[in-house]
Amino acid sequence: MGFRLASIDGRAVLIDGEHWHDLAAVSFGEFSGDPMEAIARHAELHALSDAVPGRDPDGAVVDAVFGAPVPRPRNSLAIGLNYKAHVVEADMELPKNPLVFTKFPSCIVGPTADVELRSETGDYEAELVVVVGDGGRDIAAESAWDHIAGMTIGQDISDRRLQFAAKPPHFDLGKSRDTYGPIGPVLVSTDLIDDPTNLTVTCSINGEERQNGNTSQLIFDVPTLIAYISSILTIEPGDVIFTGTPEGVGAVQGTYLVPGDEIVTTITGLGQMVNRCV
Ligand code: ZN
User: Fold this and answer.
1) 257 and 136 part of one domain
2) pLDDT in tens, 150-161
3) CA 259 to centroid of ligand 1, rounded, Å
4) In a domain, 100, yes or no
5) Per residue in 31-85, pLDDT tens?
6) Residue 144 Cα, ligand 1 centroid: separation in angstroms?
7) Which domain holds residue 83?
8) I need a labelling partner for 189 at 20 to 30 A (CA). Which of 5, 81, 135, 154 fits?
């Protein structure tokens, strides 16, 4: 059986329907409760999830405040210009190789965290985030999915002015202000996703849908990204990859985020994130 891993107060929990179960308790102390350890031992979470329906839950999902399911990734990578319609709207050239940049791990926050705007040019980008389960180097595209523990939702919040404040542009800084990397609510194991190449990705601002794409439209699909990135650096358990955003970002329409905006991000089978701008 697959697993749904989340984090509450920094502790790893398994989700079963409307309830959550403390991983350290479920495993009788075999797991410390650190979500990063849980991801590194993701293969064991399948059997532990089988045991969950038989025990009394530790709490209700509706009452829980989830943190980032991957709170401290060693590396946090992101892909720019990975949906053709977004490349067109951004008036950029189609990339010949994946455009990879860093969202510094310090920007990662949870699925209900406030986004602390620090300029007038904050923007949203709904994205599928894949989480490495088994690390490695020079991983072939054919075996890439075997190295992924699961998937979650991400927002690649971007400060457009800062992103293009230098030439060539420094994407990493413009996308790494504190709180600019909400992920969650749950890390869903890949075996629970029918078809990761056909997931609808949406973003709404204050109830108005701004983005509606599908992972079938990725220019460089997930196996290609894993093969490319691991040909350059060793990937490790808990590394996260934001896979790019579909069209409809605010910069193109001149509608940047302002305090009070509510960002709702959804992906088929992965749930939704709700983040408020302050
Ligand atoms: Zn992005």
Assistant:
1) yes
2) 999 999 999 999
3) 21
4) yes
5) 999 999 999 999 999 999 998 988 999 999 999 999 999 999 999 999 999 999 9
6) 21
7) 76-276
8) 81
